[in-house]
Design goal:
Blueprint lengths: L9 E6 L2 H10 L3 E4 L11 H12 L8 E6 L1 H4 L1 E3 L5 E3 L2 H19 L8 E5 L5 H17 L7 E8 L2 H7 L3 H9 L3 E3 L8 E2 L23 H6 L11 E4 L18 H13 L4 E6 L1 H5 L2 E4 L23 E4 L1 H13 L3 E4 L5 H10 L5 E4 L4 E3 L1 E2 L3 E2 L7 E3 L1 H4 L11 E4 L8 H11 L5 E4 L7 E3 L9
Parallel strand pairs: 1-2, 1-15, 2-3, 3-6, 6-7, 7-11, 11-14, 12-13, 14-15, 20-21
Antiparallel strand pairs: 4-5, 8-10, 9-10, 16-19, 17-18, 21-22
């Protein structure tokens, strides 16, 4: 394992407010990312970014902490057509608006916390030439901006496995989650994979995060009145939005992100003068429990993903193998870029990847470090994106081992019959790991796992 002296590995945690920022810093996060988890795009107001920066500045930090904020391609560079497809605006407008947005978030973060804040640039759904133009304009603009010349630029591209997506996108729980995120578009009743939005209307949330129709089925007029359907819709059938296939944008001809796609992503970032690249997964794949890191595709990884199932028995799965992750990190460094992995990163993935890929610069997380919100007056929140908040004890489950990271195991995983055998194998390979169990309804509280006990704690 790399020592604290020769490693500068960092965990990025996405937060929505000052209290989450404090929790992230106290848990060991090194990059505090401003993002709105209640939307699919993560857009956040500039004043909220400033509030988060103030909270970080006022919090005790053992190691240097940076700020980051994203600008996403969807909310600024494209408009949506029926079916969720992105229609590009003029190239000049796209590039110009991206640079304007980057300046805005860079100013909001300021340099009081760290002289080198990070602007994350979402580039999904663009051809290699276009994303290089957008990224290059942002980089060149920030380099010339007074007081912002040290701002770092991180390109963000999404990995995909379209076969896995096709197998999961019609599952009821996936449809419901996407309905809650408004990731759908009107469709004819006989369109492939169309479904009736009214049947999942209890998943539609208002601005306060509460269900709009908790106990009844709305009609077409009611769905239009609340904005769940556009006025021009005919009927209540919809289809979920689709990922942007790599083959349509010159990354790879395969339906899964492979080394060819990784190479194209990294080379484009380097050509544009970026400082770092993040490979993430889109919100579509996240709600289908498809993350970036696969623990099943390498003999060096213990496959704890298989024990991480939802209430319907759907296991967590991933896209990139350990070998592909190593290729990504090595190619980034060969091109002078920092490498960041995101995409529903869990503690059991992070603690293995940090150890097996010691040159990895950054991991990013939110879903793996949040627990149900708890208000001492109003009680526990619902299990929605609105009501899950960052907890320091869970953040520590994803930070690098040399910074005190430990393994956090959700309590439901311990019920799997083969879990203890696989955990013992993991602890044999990595005997320095300390293991804690997280009980979902205890607001982030952990309990130590007795390694000698034959059954769950």
């Amino acid at each position: 394992m790399r020592s604290r002296i020769d490693a500068d590995r960092r965990l990025l945690v996405s937060v929505f407010g000052p209290q989450e920022a404090r929790e992230a810093v106290l848990g060991g996060a090194r990059i505090i990312d401003s993002e709105d988890p209640r939307s699919a795009l993560g857009t956040i107001k500039p004043r909220r970014i400033m509030d988060i920066a103030d909270a970080v500045l006022a919090t005790r930090r053992d190691l240097p902490v940076q700020l980051s904020t994203n600008i996403g391609e969807d909310q600024l560079l494209y408009r949506r057509a029926a079916g969720g497809l992105a229609i590009g605006k003029s190239p000049y407008e796209m590039v110009g608006k991206a640079a304007q947005a980057a300046l805005g978030v860079a100013v909001s973060m300021g340099t009081a916390v760290h002289p080198c804040p990070i602007v994350k640039v979402g580039l999904d759904g663009m051809g290699v030439g276009r994303l290089t133009d957008v990224l290059g304009e942002i980089t060149a603009t920030l380099r010339r901006a007074d007081g912002l010349g040290r701002t770092r630029v991180m390109s963000v591209l999404f990995a995909q496995d379209l076969d896995l997506w096709d197998a999961r996108k019609t599952l009821p729980q996936v449809r419901r989650a996407l309905v809650g995120l408004r990731e759908y578009d009107p469709a004819a009743p006989d369109a492939p994979d169309a479904f009736d939005l009214a049947e999942h209307a209890d998943a539609l949330l208002g601005d306060d995060g509460r269900p709009l129709f908790p106990d009844r089925r709305p009609d077409e007029a009611e769905l239009k009145a609340c904005g769940a359907l556009p006025a021009a819709a005919r009927g209540t059938h919809v289809t979920v939005n689709e990922p942007f296939p790599h083959a349509d944008h010159g990354l790879t001809r395969r339906r899964r992100t492979d080394t060819e796609a990784i190479r194209a992503m990294v080379e484009a970032g380097a050509a544009a003068g970026a400082d770092a690249i993040m490979i993430d997964t889109s919100i579509l794949l996240k709600v289908a429990r498809i993350g970036l890191i696969s623990t099943a595709r390498s003999d060096e990884l213990v496959d704890l993903d298989a024990h991480d199932t939802d209430a319907h028995g759907l296991p967590r799965t991933g896209i990139l193998s350990l070998e592909e992750i190593r290729f990504f990190v090595d190619l980034c460094h060969a091109r002078g870029l920092e490498a960041n992995l995101a995409g529903s990163v869990q503690s059991h993935q992070a603690q293995q990847i940090w150890r097996l890929v010691p040159d990895l610069d950054q991991l990013s997380a939110r879903g793996g470090v949040v627990a149900l919100a708890h208000d001492p007056h109003h009680g526990t929140g619902a299990a929605t994106r609105h009501d899950r908040v960052v907890r320091r004890a869970l953040v520590a489950g994803i930070i690098p081992p040399e910074q005190g990271g430990y393994l956090v195991v959700p309590e439901h995983m311990t019920r799997s019959p083969k879990f203890r055998t696989d955990l013992d194998e993991l602890l044999t390979r990595h005997p320095d790991l300390h293991v804690h169990v997280h009980v979902a309804d205890h607001y982030g509280a952990l309990s130590a796992l007795d390694r000698t006990a034959p059954d769950t704690p």
